[in-house]
Amino acid sequence: LAALERQVFDFLGYQWAPILANFLHIIIVILGLFGTIQYRPRYIVVYAIWTAIWVTWNIFIICFYLEVGGLSKDSELLTFNISRHQSWWSENGPGCVRKEASMSGIKGLDNHSYISVIGCALEYRYIEVMHSSFQILIALVGFVYACYVVSVFTEEEDSFDFIGGFDPFPLYHVNEKPTNLLFKQTYLFLSPPDFSGMEGMNK
């Protein structure tokens, strides 16, 4: 749900790089849930690997909006240099008032307007940082849970008993008799009875 909420606001701000990242994240989360329900540890491992990538991506977003390491929040990096759009929160944050001023008095800027945003209770970059921090927290919890589920599934597979297949003392134990003893029982059953001793007793 948090990823869907973030995807909506990134669409409103035309932030193409975050849109693609959020889309991949939603797909991998669905894959991880499917693996948990259907007992597919490989899908859960894929989700666990993705959470590491997702944490790295969100750390980059935090550095981008805080302008760490030469990054600039005013650059067009997140829009692939296609447009000059910024975060949707830059004009629609809590308490923000959007004003437009005509630029008709300046040559070359006729029919254009200058947009100013004032009165914001919280700067938009901090809202984006809060979003990314929350995503990191959820990803860390998901990584721990994924590792736990994989370990449980692995233990169940190792201890599963295919009719005593992995049990050193199987439940359905067949007491096999030696071959020579079986032949001896068959010979005694098929040989005719001896009545020689019975004739002496009758006399």
UniProtKB/TrEMBL annotation:
Major localization listed first in the record, in broad terms: membrane
- Give the transmembrane region(s): 16-37, 44-68, 134-153
Q: Name one GO biological process term.
A: regulation of sodium ion transport
Record-level GO cellular component terms: plasma membrane
Q: Which InterPro entries match?
A: Na/K-Atpase_Interacting
Q: Which Pfam families match?
A: NKAIN (PF05640)
Keyword check for Cytoplasm: no
UniProt entry keywords in alphabetical sequence: Cell membrane, Membrane, Transmembrane, Transmembrane helix
Q: Where, subcellularly, is it found?
A: Cell membrane
Membrane topology category: Multi-pass membrane protein
Q: Which family does it belong to?
A: Belongs to the NKAIN family.
The protein's name is Sodium/potassium-transporting ATPase subunit beta-1-interacting protein
Q: Which organism is it from?
A: Orthonyx spaldingii (Chowchilla)
* Taxonomy of the source species: Eukaryota, Metazoa, Chordata, Craniata, Vertebrata
State the gene name recorded for this protein: Nkain4
